[in-house]
Write a structure and sequence with these properties.
Elements lengths: L7 H16 L7 H11 L3 H13 L9 H6 L1 H6 L3 H22 L5 H27 L4 H27 L1 H36 L9 H23 L14 H21 L1 H24 L2 H16 L1 H16 L3 H30 L2 H16 L2 H12 L3 H12 L1 H12 L3 H9 L4 H30 L1 H4 L7 H11 L2 H23 L4
């Protein structure tokens, strides 16, 4: 061991010794230590004191076995509020019980016999056809005979499967018994170390649940027994309990809910028509101006501007790649559609950034506001795009403004989240030093908070742009033009070449934008 290496054995031994001192053994034990341990375990404090001492005295694994935990299984872990262990053990135990009950009491050949019943129905029908063909002296008698022979052979094979399934029952049951024995052994071995770790966490934080409460005991037992009984009954005896096969509901409930939702959206569309019209006109104004710049301007001007911007942001090498990407789009005839895509993307990303960064700055110092907004952003990110396109179409119709709104919903949240994350990550010591030197709130924001949070904010802008670009194809479903339209047509008509080429054009747009936004930071 070199002088600079930490003495891990010494540190581990000192940690074990400190744990041993905290619990107390022999003459070193104090009355307060014993009271704390008794308060935590409530039952058998002598047993747990000895086991905790044994675990704490060793630097490695100390073997102990808790018979109560092995016998009760997940119920014991639930009683002790150790559900981190209890839930996995409950799943494995239920699986073992299913195998035992299926092997010894279940009807393993039920599915095969159902198949035989279906084939027998078909066989009876074919025999009727054969009899009719023989009576009429038809030419297809041989066809029916071969079909009947094939069905009879299939029934014989399935009958063999039924016999084999029934014979495998004992093996399945024994596997379940072996699995149950192993998991019981594991639970008994893990119980004391898990409870000892929980005990030391409780010493540091007395708000953690301790002891054995009647509610926790009965709820743990009820939960484990309920899921065990219901699951075993369902899998071991399929079809016996129809209530377990499908959720108890009626189609009338769904139809009523659909009517309520449609009524709500009709009311919102009628009352908020002026607002949706105003938003549509604003988006249309921004979009038309960007399309005028990207599409109406001569291609050589736009290409030169993009290449120069890439060179200034990410360097000459990135500018050369940008030139190659733009040449690819131009030569293959994607230039106008690529510029339309950039205009659509630019509108959605610009509006998302203009709204998102100030909103993130406002929420960064107001936890209550952010706690209200965060579930809304979670909803926006997790809801499938095809679902929230439905209300967007209801409010804004189809076309480019609706596509911009859809893109903003899907891609506008990262800039808010990462702005909040960046501003909250500014060290308080730096802010306090600036305030101590007389910095105003505006100066603190401009010269301290935003510069230090800039990497996170730039990452949020980048993610918003990338997610917005990912919506190009989806947005084309509701009338957005551009490269997404080519990909959509390729999907509809199975045009592999067109889809691949347009997909690469979208990829190159994303790479150019990524280099422009992230270039300096990289």
């Amino acid at each position: 061991m070199t002088p600079t290496e930490p003495n891990t054995d010494t540190n581990a031994a000192s940690t074990a010794a400190s744990r041993k001192d905290m619990i107390g053994t022999g003459n070193a034990s104090t009355h307060s230590d014993r009271e704390l341990l008794t308060e935590f375990v409530e039952t058998n404090p002598d047993y747990y004191e000895q086991r905790f001492n044994k675990i704490g005295a060793k630097t490695g694994f100390a073997f102990t076995f808790n018979f109560a935990a092995a016998l009760l299984g997940p119920i014991w872990f639930g009683m002790r509020n150790l559900w981190k262990w209890g839930l996995p053990f409950a799943i494995i135990e239920v699986f073992a019980y299913i195998q035992i009950v299926r092997g010894w009491f279940g009807d393993l050949g039920a599915e095969a016999r159902d198949r035989i019943s279906q084939i027998e129905g078909t066989l009876a029908f074919r025999k009727q056809q054969l009899a009719s063909a023989i009576e009429k002296q038809a030419d297809n008698v041989n066809v029916f005979e071969r079909a009947i022979e094939s069905l009879e052979k299939a029934i014989s094979d399935i009958q063999l499967e039924v016999v084999a399934a029934q014979e495998a029952g004992s093996g399945i049951a024994l596997f379940g018994v072996a699995l149950l024995a192993v998991i019981k052994l594991i639970q008994g071995v893990i119980a004391n170390p898990a409870l000892e770790k929980r005990y030391f966490a409780w010493l540091s934080d007395k708000s953690l649940p301790s002891g054995l409460t009647p509610f926790r005991t009965w709820s743990s037992a009820g939960f484990v027994l309920l899921i065990t009984f219901v699951t075993v009954s369902h899998y071991a005896f399929p079809g016996k309990f129809s209530m377990l096969n499908s959720f108890p509901t009626t189609d009338a409930i769904r139809r009523t809910a659909i009517t309520w939702v449609e009524t709500l959206f009709d009311w919102l569309t009628e009352k908020g028509d002026w607002l949706f019209t105003l938003i549509t006109r604003g988006i249309r104004w921004v979009l038309d101006n960007l399309e005028l710049i990207f599409v109406g301007t001569p291609w050589i001007v736009v290409a030169s501007f993009i290449i120069l911007l890439t060179a200034l942001s990410a360097g000459k090498r990135a500018a050369i790649f940008a030139m190659a990407f733009l040449a690819y789009m131009g030569i293959l005839g994607f230039w106008e559609k690529a510029m339309t895509t950039l205009a659509l993307l630019g509108t959605a990303a610009m509006l998302s950034i203009i709204i998102g960064i100030p909103l993130g700055m406002y929420c960064a110092r107001r936890p209550r506001v952010y706690s209200f907004i965060r579930p809304i952003m979670d909803f926006m990110q997790t809801m499938p795009a095809f679902v929230f396109m439905i209300p967007v179409i209801a409010f804004f119709g189809t076309g480019k403004p609706a596509a911009v709104v859809t893109t903003m919903i899907f891609g506008g949240t990262p800039v808010v989240r990462l702005t909040v994350l960046g501003l909250r990550g500014v060290p308080e010591s730096i802010r306090e030093a600036a305030i101590a030197y007389g910095a105003s709130k505006w100066y603190l924001l401009r010269k301290v908070d935003l510069p230090l949070a800039a990497p996170s904010i730039l990452a949020g802008i980048n993610q918003t742009i990338m997610l917005s670009l990912a919506m190009v194809v989806v947005a084309s479903l509701i009338g957005a033009k551009g490269l997404g339209e080519d990909v959509l047509e390729a999907l509809q008509y199975a045009s592999v070449g067109q889809g691949i080429l347009a997909g690469f054009a979208i990829l190159f747009c994303a790479m150019i934008l990524d280099r422009v936004v992230q270039g300096k930071r990289q």
